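Milestone 3.1: sequence recovery, worked example.
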């Protein structure tokens, strides 16, 4: 028995020493039990990136960045700002030595890449309909791609996963992707787009590929037939005009055509499946400046006859 109970009467000692469960005062048990609530105030903390302690310069020696604010004593760097690449007044190193590597091509286009295995996964999930032409609109709305600043380029990774024929109308396509799609019975057509044209396409204000320069020779007739069947135009593939398509769908804008030589030559090339390739003559190449080997051979084989004037004296 506890020493503290020794001085109490015997009956009171037995009552206190008895278990609380057998006591008639069981309803007072919570009042006799001592509880301690664990405090979480000492363990509270903010997210690791929520607070960034800013160094306050020139606010006394206690901050560690007082007086000279970490700039040291004297000199140009302590008194004012030094331009990037400043070399003490002499010729800059970038002028003397030039740049080597890590240069940014300001003329490069930012394409959204998409591989064939990803397109096949979206088709298997029912997010893309393979019976209709697959354009930048279908790829973006199905979240197959997430950005389309200058267009879409199809790559050939996962070509063996392609199960059914598909019809692609994109900005660019690799040679392996073109070979895989055509081997599966599909078709690829490359179309010129601008950033504003893509915005109009996403807003359903422009058709994804039909324009004045587009014809049945620009892509497969199956591709155009699938699109025209949805429009319910009731006309042949060769006779459908851009005006009738715009009226049927209530479109506001027309698709632009390329104006730069580099873009014109790309979409005139049959190897790229360009939509302007049908404009080439049988012996003409896609270049606007250089002649193709067939043109040079044909020109070398024919000799120009010298035409003399009628009233020539000698």
């Amino acid at each position: 028995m506890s020493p503290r109970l020794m001085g109490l009467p015997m009956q009171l000692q037995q009552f206190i020493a008895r278990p609380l469960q057998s006591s008639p005062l069981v309803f007072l048990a919570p009042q006799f039990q001592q509880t301690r609530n664990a405090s979480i105030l000492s363990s509270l903390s903010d997210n690791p990136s929520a607070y960034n302690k800013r160094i306050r310069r020139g606010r006394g020696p206690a901050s560690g960045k007082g007086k000279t604010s970490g700039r040291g004593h004297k000199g140009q760097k302590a008194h004012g700002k030094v331009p990037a690449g400043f070399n003490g007044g002499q010729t800059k190193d970038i002028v003397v030595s030039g740049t080597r590597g890590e240069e940014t091509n300001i003329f490069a286009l930012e394409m959204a890449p998409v591989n064939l295995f990803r397109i096949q996964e979206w088709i298997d999930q029912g997010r893309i309909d393979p019976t209709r032409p697959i354009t930048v609109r279908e790829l973006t709305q199905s979240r197959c791609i997430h950005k389309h600043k200058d267009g879409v380029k199809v790559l050939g990774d996962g070509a063996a996963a392609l199960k059914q024929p598909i019809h692609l109308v994109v900005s660019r396509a690799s040679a392996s992707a073109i070979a895989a799609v055509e081997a599966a019975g599909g078709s690829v057509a490359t179309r010129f787009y601008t950033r504003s044209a893509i915005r109009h396409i996403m807003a359903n204000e422009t058709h994804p590929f039909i324009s004045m320069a587009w014809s049945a020779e620009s892509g497969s007739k199956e591709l155009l037939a699938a699109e025209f069947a949805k429009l319910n135009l009731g006309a042949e593939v060769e006779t459908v005009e851009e005006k009738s398509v715009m009226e049927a769908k209530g479109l506001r804008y027309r698709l632009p055509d390329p104006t730069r030589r580099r873009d014109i030559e790309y979409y005139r090339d049959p190897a790229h499946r360009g939509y302007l390739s049908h404009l080439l003559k049988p012996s003409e190449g896609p270049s606007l400046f250089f002649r193709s080997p067939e043109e040079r051979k044909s020109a070398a084989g024919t000799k120009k006859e010298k035409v003399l004037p009628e009233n020539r004296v000698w």
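The beta strands are 112-115, 152-155, 167-170, 172-173, 187-190. Residues 221-231 form the longest helix (11 residues).
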